[in-house]
Amino acid sequence: MKTGRIIKSISGDYSVQADDGIYITRARGLFRKKKTSPVVGDIVDFQVENETGGYIQHIHERENILLRPPVSNIHKVIVVMSASEPAFSQQLLDRFLVVVHSYNITPIICVTKKDLATDDEIQQIQDKLAQYQSIGYETLFIGEEDDVSNAIKPLIDGIIVLSGQSGVGKSTIMNRLFEDLNLETNKISKALNRGKHTTRHVELYELDGGYLADTPGFSALDFSHIEKEELADLFPEFEAIKSQCKFRNCTHINEPKCAVKERIRDNHFYQLRYKHYLTLFEEIQNRKVRY
Q1: For residue 122, which of 151, 82, 94, 93 has the smallest C-alpha distance?
Q2: Which domain of life does the protein's organism represent (predicted)?
Q3: Backbone angles phi, psi at 238, to 5 degrees
Q4: What is the dihedral of CA 206, 208, 209, 215, to 10 degrees?
Q5: Which of 92, 231, 271, 279 is the most buried (most CB within 10 A)?
Q6: Binding residue per annotation — 21?
Q7: What is the pLDDT of residue 219?
Q8: What is the pTM assigned to this prediction?
Q9: pLDDT at position 8, please?
Q10: DSSP structure class, residue 44
Q11: Mean local confidence (pLDDT), 108-128
Q12: Mean per-residue pLDDT for 245-252?
């Protein structure tokens, strides 16, 4: 029996990196009975059947797991947005941040395509990133002329996932970090102002003792696992002061003497974040119960 980490999954074949190499494995039927499946990032025990193949027998306990796309044992998620093509969207950024926080994973904000933005757009984005930094987020703002390696490599610690909608430059970042990778990139559709899904599967790439994952691009985010009562905890600036609200179960919407509503009163950045909070709260409140 050997132990290793799943670094790629395609059509039921799991590439497992062990101390002595990479094995192409399959999952035993027992996982179907348990209604679970191995995912990229899992530490697994597998039985060797030949020199390069085998069968997964056991999945070690996971620290966490993203559902869409499925990746486990993640240390940080780099949420990639673009300054242009597609245009920067703070609402979309906040939605990504909420999803990452919901899995108890640390997000990092990375804005790309600085070279395609106007001077005014650059200034506006820099101002927004400074505001995100003020509430504890680590941020990056990079363009074609920047050394992506110097920007990303210091962040590598365990498994780092690149996430964000299609067309924002995730595959471009990977190609610049791994010269022989040559991932497919895709220009933005003029009609839809978004990219096609160019990454077809999840794969981990080893870098400086850690792993970087490029995930399939997506713009439809899943909030089905988030309850409205816990949403405020996924906004760090609200979570930090909620204990000052008069009511313990304050939703920060209609209750009197709400510390969150008081805090946002004179701060445009907080007001915009609060607006996004209200939109998400309503979406979660109105979703249909699934049986």
Answers
A1: 82
A2: Bacteria
A3: -85, -40
A4: -40
A5: 231
A6: no
A7: 45
A8: 0.85
A9: 94
A10: E
A11: 96
A12: 94
Beta bridge partners, 81, equal: 111
224 in a labelled binding site:
no
> Containing H/E element for 23?
strand 21-27
Beta bridge partners of 231: none
176-219 per-position pLDDT tens digit: 888 777 655 555 444 444 444 444 678 899 988 899 987 665 44
118 is known to lie in a ligand binding site:
no
Using an 8 Å Cβ cutoff, are 42 and 62 in contact?
A: yes
Contact of 216 with 197, CB cutoff 8 Å: yes
Q: Does 209 appear as a known binding residue?
A: no
DSSP state of 27: E
CA distance readout (Å), 122 to 125, 128, 153, 192, 258: 5, 10, 24, 23, 35
- Dump pLDDT digits (tens) for 127-148: 999 999 999 999 999 998 888 8
pLDDT of residue 18: 95
Provide the b/e sequence for 159-196 (b: ≥16 CB within 10 Å): bbbbbbbbbbbbbbbbbbbbeeeebeeeebeeeeebbe
pLDDT of 35 reads 82
**Could you tell me which of 34, 212, 5 has the C-alpha nearest to residue 25?**
5
- Tell me if 167 is assigned to a ligand binding site: yes
Q: How far apart are CA 86 and CA 166, in angstroms?
A: 9
Amino acid at 118: T
Name the β-bridge partners of 8. Answer: 15, 203
Indicate the SS3 state at residue 123. helix
**Span between the terminal Cα atoms of the chain, in Å:** 40
110 is in an annotated binding site: no
168 annotated binding-site participant: yes
Total number of residues shown for the chain:
291
pLDDT at res. 195: 46
